[in-house]
Amino acid sequence: MKILLDESLPRKLRNDFGVDHEVWTVRDKGWLGKKNGELLQLMTESKFDLFVTVDRNLKFQQNLTLFSLTIIVLCGVDNRRNTLKELLPKIFQQLNSSNFHTVIEIF
């Protein structure tokens, strides 16, 4: 699975996804500062499967049905690596349940 981590997430969080996935950060791709619409378009063109963010407002700001990817919103008490990495198993549990949505919030 090809995964992109939003710029608001700790970069080292990509190490917590394991070796079975191709994980990039927005910084790695040189896409820092891109507006959400442009970022989603770049992700679609680059064939990303999953976008991980903490931006709870994204679903209200964009027509996400236009993009062929799943967006995971991590809803932790903060966006520190130790807090967010505890939510990672829930991402794959949700994806493995075949309960796909355009936006999945993980608490």
What separation lies between the terminal Cα atoms? 22 Å
Stretches where pLDDT falls below 50 for ≥5 residues? none
If strands are numbered along the chain, what order do they take across the biggest sheet? 2-1-3-4-5
Total helical elements = 5
Report the sheet-strand fraction. 15-25%
Which range best describes the helical content: under 10%, 10-25%, 25-40%, 40-55%, 55-70% or over 70%? 25-40%
Q: How many strands in all?
A: 5
The figure for the number of domains is: 1
- Summed over residues and divided by their number, the pLDDT gives a mean of 92
Decide which structural class fits the backbone. alpha/beta
Shape: globular
**Can you write the helix and strand succession as a string?**
EEHHEHEHHE
- Whole-number radius of gyration? 13 Å
Biggest sheet, in brief?
A: 5 strands, parallel
Written description of the protein model:
With 107 residues, the chain is α/β, with parallel strands linked by helices. It has helices at 26-29, 36-45, 58-61, 81-85, 88-96, and strands at residues 2-5, 22-25, 50-53, 70-74, 103-106. 21% of the residues are buried. The model has no long low-confidence stretch (mean pLDDT 92).
